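Bumping with the actual sequence this time:
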Amino acid sequence: MTDVIDAVLGAERADAVRVVRQARPAVVAHTQGAHDALFDGPAGRAFGRERLAAVAAHVASLAGAKELAAHYAELAGPAGREPESGSDPALATSLAHAARLTTAPGASTRAQIEALHSAGLSERDIVTLSQLVGFVNYQVRLLAGLALIGGSRD
């Protein structure tokens, strides 16, 4: 089974870190399980898989994780290609929230949560969105570490 981390690493880099990843099978399983729960669970379906993927692509892009951003942009389909179009106020507000949580989490205030509510997000949507931001940032760190481990040693 290929999980998201292996897919984003690509075959060659995934092979280079396979022994490390196999040494911690619970980490591999739970990382993929968290992804699947976010995107395929009831909360993710309620928020919208494409919206979630667009937010994930934005977070990965902000973190400089190009391959992960591309992975999520592909999942997002049209929602990931034009997220600032303004045609989806919930998505636009979610992208702003995700950027704030990623780049300046201490700047978050109750007013931003109220803006999410005003854009039509439920409490469950806001929690799902915030969990997604944390999860994608975890994926970014995991991929960076694996890339260092699997890098060439000249």
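The tokens above came from a reply further down the thread. The chain is about 80% helix and 0% strand.
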